[in-house]
Structures are given as C-alpha cells and as structure tokens.
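Collaborator request, handled under Task 6.
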Amino acid sequence: MSGLTVEATAREQARAIREREISARELLELHLDRIAERNPELNAIVSLDEERARAGALAADEALASGRPVGPLHGLPFAFKDTHTVGGWRTTFGSTLFADHVPERDELLVERVRAAGAVTIGKTNVPEFAAGSHTFNKVFGTTRNPVDPSRSAGGSSGGAACALASGMVPLADGSDMGGSLRNPASFCGVVGMRPSLGRVPEWPLYNQWETTSVGGPMARNVGDLALLLSVLAGPDPRVPLALGDPGATFAGPAPADLRALRVAVSTDLGGAFAVDHDVAAVVSEAGRTFAAAGARVASSHPDLGLADDTFRTLRAWHLHAKLGGLFDQHPDAFKASLADNIRAGAPLTGADVARAYTQRTALAETMRQFFTEHDVLVLPVSQVPPFPVEQEFPTEINGEPMASYLDWMRSAYFITVTGCPAISVPAGTTPDGLPVGVQIVAPHGADLRLLQVARAFEWLRSS
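Structure tokens returned to the collaborator:
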C-alpha cells in the first residue's frame, strides 16, 4: 500500500488509484477506519453500509484492471447528502416520516457522481427536510463540529462539511437554499460553493421553475471542489433552465491574477444585518489580503434591501407547496420552526409570489450593475461563528436579539435571491480557534472566474 492518507487531496487520491499506487479497496478501508474513529462522536455519516461499499470498491478495481476508461472520481469513497435520492439506498430527508424510505432510482446529481466512478458508502446527516442551518433530526440525532464538538457543524449540509473536515470522505455533495452549502463550510473550515442558477441541473423536482435551491460541491480545497463541480455541472435535456457550459470547463481553474482585480468588501452590506465582531474582523482581514496582492479593494456594497422579503416569501411558498400536504396529514412530525415556515406559506397569494419575483428581478439587475464597477464582492458567509450545539439557532449577535431562526443567515440568503454564484473559503479563526470563512460572490454565470479568484485567495492564505 502507498503512503497515501485520508488527508490527501481528492485529486491526489484519484490519481493514486488511476496510477495503481493504491487500490480502491485499500482507499476505502482507510476511510472506513477514519469513520470508525471519528463518526461515533461527530455523527456526520449515516446509513453507512460497509459491505456494499466494499463491493463497490471491488467493482472499481476490476473496472480499472480491465482497461476500460474510468471517470474522474474513480474509486473515491462518497457519501451523498441525505436529501439526495440514491437508488436502493436508504434516504430519510432527516424526517421520521421517511425513516425507512428506499428510493428506486438515483436523482441526476447522484447519477453523475456515480457515473464518474465514485464508490457509495452511505449518506451525510441533514436537518429535517434540510430546513435550518444546524444539523439535527429525530432519526439520527445531531452532527457536531469537527474542530470543537461542543459546537454546531452548520447545515443543512452539516454532515457533509463535518465528514470532509474530519477526513471521512474526500469530497461531498450538498444543496443550498439559504446557505446550506456555504454556512457549514464556514463552520467546519472547508470550501462550499453555491453555483449560478442553472449550473448544476437537478432532476426530478416537483417544480423545475422554482430557483431558490441549487445543488453544488463541497471539498477541503478549491481545486478539489472544482473537480467535483466538473462532474456535477453541464446541461441535461430534462432540465430546461440548465446552463450550457460543459462540466469539464471547471475542472482545473488556475489561480487568478489579483493585480487590478476590483474587489468590493463589506462586513454587513451597509448595516443590513448584525455581524459578530470576530467574524467581521476576519472579513476585514480578507480585504487586506486582497489589497496586499495588488487588488483594487473598495469598501462598497450593493443595495439588497429587497432581499429579506423576497427570500422569506419564496421560501415559505416553496416549503408549503412541497410539504404542506404532508404537514396537514402529520402535523406532529415536524419540528416547530419548520412547521411555522410551512404555515407561513399557506396564506400567500398569487400577488405575494408575483411581488417576490418582481423584487428578485430587481435584485438581479442591482447585481448586474454593481458588477460593472466591481469584479467580486467579499462579505461574511455566516454572521456568527459556530454556536453551541445545544442551540437550534443563535438567539443574539453582539447583544442584539434575533427575532427568528433565519435572522443570523441573512448574509447568505441575501445572495441566494440574486442568483449569483458564491463560494465560502476558509479565511481565519476566532480568538478561541473556531473556523470562519469568507463569502466571495461573482456575477451570474461567472463560476469559473469565481473559482479562479477563490484559488488565488486560498493560495495567499496558505503562503
């Protein structure tokens, strides 16, 4: 066996398998050992099936030995987010109503990852129906932060971020409505990207025209994330809003030349939300990092005053449309915060939804104009560092009370309703060592440019 460890990058692991320095079976056992070591405390991987995983790794080794072409993720152990349906594999959505649910087919995102050669080992834990940015449910319990298990791992892709950061998997998939790829990435010290609308097609969906939630990649570094995005991205005839760029476009982005890059930095979008002082300090330091590399850094922000009502209206409408019937049948099976959001969608009228989409159109135009003067926007991912795991959500920031369980996520969901791609990149820690990421945002469609800027920032941080 080679000296490869689970801390190696996903690209290194995939190369080692292709060059037969390590077998898929050997790599799987390394990851299963790490899962046995860390998962009992952290609870990131759920529905683990070691025997099926071993059968998959054996099949991967046999495919490579046969000389057949293999995909870019060939032999890499992979655990899918437990809201993404995997044919023949338990998928619970974090709900007791689906505790024994086994779907018959893969959804599109899963299709693509499996076709790229990944070896399925299980699922990653989620909040109930992926609602809320703290990962806990009554089926599997709570996922803890890998840096400090007394803290939250974030959510809804909290199991994915935790599994990545602790070396249980080399890559992870997720989805993001209000920050579900970005917030847990920031909390766990990994990279998570919300792609442009249409970049990662999803199928099947109950509503192909509802565009607040998107699928996307998560990894320990930007290069690995780009590798996974190259698998997830690209058009599909079943998805009418899918962008046409082939996935391979994103496979190996070079770091951007930051000289003369126009960077707007804002800690709170002009007072639009409260931000923990330690988080604000990390964002300000990121601005200085860009400036030291030659970027033209300005303290500037777009006016996203319409974003709060837009997001909350569309989120409530979406949750009620998707889950309202189930909630009517099983009202006691939903956590209180999700039940409140579903109820909030019931009285919405066509005029309310039309208002939200009209505002969303205005927000997209605001960002288009903003990006004629700036290339990227840098702001907080999360308004707080990882909070105590016993809390469902932060109740105050710098002494300012939070009125609801969504208030502390404005820095993420304000960007959601612009349609722009955004990436969370590790940027520092609080004085007590908790991870803090910064959010870098680019114009819609500029996902490759965003990856290039993120790689450059990552390199500056590590050099």
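The cover message to the collaborator said: "DSSP finds 13 helices and 15 strands in the chain. Residues 262-309+342-442 form one domain. Please let us know whether this matches your experimental observations."
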